[in-house]
């Protein structure tokens, strides 16, 4: 059994590590201004990162789940705001387009997505429908010109910049969750669509995530994504990869926190020596390193198996659950090692502490992951 990454994946990780090293010094400018320096996006576009998960025939890199996970571990050393536009392009919405869009839809969207010209938003969550998508209230009613969409969505990443919104709505309430929800590719300039609010977050995204409103939005018949009534299945299918992506982000954040904590412990003076001389700190570091190695292995195993066709939901859920919780424990301990300075703005561990917290919530909370794992094992 070979636990080493394939050579091509190692190569792109090496390149990514160099890019991250070059971009990290710009974090201070971002902290001071609240604006991501334009060179960050330019660098990611020029090096093909917007197309990581997109097929090569449409200008993407065509990376599999393993490569995407490994690259995201490296990118996660950066402030999330530096690469927030990349995540929707690797998440459920993008996967729905790749797997289920018509040829015309793919040709219309994927090349522009790969170059960063076309942003997308995944609009599933509603004010009264988070972990339970079946309770959504958005509807799409067929008429002579296609479909009329009404409803609202909340906590939508990239909602303000997206040129296309992937909207999930009931097309037949009587058919229930499994047969009554459909997905639509709606242009953001559709009359009746509006961004009605911005939800500011404690970390992860600037300025935040968005509330969307759909008021009699008329879309054409060919806006339907895939088959009518299959939207819920598509969303769940895409969430497998989305959950591994979140796990990869948590592994990257946790590993970076561990690295920072080791460096700090070796140079922070205390009682005539440095704090790494003390057993308590050494035990912290040993536990952190063990947690992160286990998280990396369980994540990469799930991603590798996914690429081999083993797409069991419990494996993705296990990877997200363990990686996000282990990463959170590690970041928390890193703040403890830094002491008071770890709680001060301007230090990377403080930023990591705020940013990693959401990984245990979005793309399915830890509680939902445990439910999914148990449900799959008890079938």
From TrEMBL:
PROSITE patterns: ACYL_COA_DH_1
Gene Ontology molecular functions: acyl-CoA dehydrogenase activity; flavin adenine dinucleotide binding
Acyl-CoA dehydrogenase/oxidase C-terminal domain: residues covered: 229-378
Domain Acyl-CoA oxidase/dehydrogenase middle, first and last residues per copy: 121-217
Entry cofactors: FAD
Domain Acyl-CoA dehydrogenase/oxidase N-terminal: 7-117
Keywords in alphabetical order: FAD, Flavoprotein, Oxidoreductase
Record keyword Flavoprotein present: yes
Xref: InterPro entries: Acyl-CoA_DH_CS, Acyl-CoA_Oxase/DH_mid-dom, Acyl-CoA_Oxase/DH_mid-dom_sf, AcylCo_DH-like_C, AcylCo_DH/oxidase_C, AcylCoA_DH/ox_N, AcylCoA_DH/ox_N_sf, AcylCoA_DH/oxidase_NM_dom_sf
PANTHER family (alphabetical): ACYL-COA DEHYDROGENASE
Entry similarity comment: Belongs to the acyl-CoA dehydrogenase family.
Record protein name field: Acyl-CoA dehydrogenase
Natural source organism: Novosphingobium pentaromativorans
Lineage: Bacteria, Pseudomonadati, Pseudomonadota, Alphaproteobacteria, Sphingomonadales
């Amino acid at each position: 059994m070979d636990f080493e990454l394939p050579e091509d994946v190692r190569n792109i990780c090496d390149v990514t590590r160099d890019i991250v090293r070059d971009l990290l010094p710009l974090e201070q400018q971002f902290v001071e201004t609240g604006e991501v320096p334009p060179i960050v996006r330019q660098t990611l576009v020029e090096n093909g990162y917007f197309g990581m998960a997109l097929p090569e025939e449409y200008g993407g890199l065509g990376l599999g789940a393993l490569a995407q996970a490994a690259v995201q571990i490296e990118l996660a050393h950066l402030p999330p705001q530096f690469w927030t536009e990349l995540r929707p392009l690797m998440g459920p919405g993008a996967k729905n387009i790749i797997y289920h869009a018509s040829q015309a839809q793919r040709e219309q969207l994927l090349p522009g997505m790969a170059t960063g010209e076309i942003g997308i938003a995944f609009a599933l969550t509603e004010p009264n429908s988070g972990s339970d998508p079946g309770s959504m209230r958005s509807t799409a009613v067929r008429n002579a010109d296609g479909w009329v969409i009404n409803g609202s969505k909340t906590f939508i990443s990239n909602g303000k910049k997206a040129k296309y919104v992937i909207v999930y709505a009931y097309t037949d309430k009587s058919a229930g969750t499994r047969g009554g929800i459909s997905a639509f590719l709606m242009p953001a300039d559709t009359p009746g669509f509006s961004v009605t609010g911005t939800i500011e977050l404690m970390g992860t995204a600037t300025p935040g995530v968005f509330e969307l409103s759909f008021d009699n939005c008329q879309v054409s018949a060919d806006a339907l994504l895939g088959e009518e009534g299959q939207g819920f299945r598509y969303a769940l299918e895409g969430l497998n990869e989305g959950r591994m992506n979140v796990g990869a982000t948590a592994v990257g954040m946790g590993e970076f926190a561990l690295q920072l904590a080791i460096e700090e412990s070796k140079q922070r003076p205390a009682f005539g020596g440095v704090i790494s001389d003390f057993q308590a700190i050494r035990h912290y570091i040993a536990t952190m390193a063990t947690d992160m190695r286990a998280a990396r292995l369980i994540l990469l195993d799930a991603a590798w198996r996914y690429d081999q066709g083993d797409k069991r939901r419990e494996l993705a859920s296990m990877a997200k659950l363990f990686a996000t919780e282990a990463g959170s424990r590690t970041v928390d301990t890193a703040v403890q090692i830094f002491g008071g300075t770890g709680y001060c703005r301007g230090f990377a561990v403080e930023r990591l502490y705020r940013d990693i917290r959401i990984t245990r919530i979005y793309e399915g909370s830890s509680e939902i992951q445990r439910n999914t794992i148990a449900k799959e094992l008890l079938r």
